[in-house]
Amino acid sequence: MNFKEYSVMIKGEIGCSCGIAACILMIITCFIKCSTKEEPEQSSYGFISYSLKWEQALSGHESPKKVRYCFYPLEQGAMTQIEGDADGLKFTLPPDKYRLLVFNCDADNIAFRNMNTFETAEAYIPATKATGYTTSGRIPLYGIAIDELEVEANEGISNTREFSMASLIREVTIDIKVDGMEYIKECKGELAGVPAAFNLSKQEIVPEKTTKVNFETAPSKEGVKANIMILGTAPKHGETPPPTPTNEVKLDFTLNDGSTSSATLDLGESIGNTEGNNINVNVSVTVEKDASFTVKINNWEVSAGDDMVIE
Question: What Pfam family is a match, any one (predicted)?
Answer without folding.
Answer: DUF5119
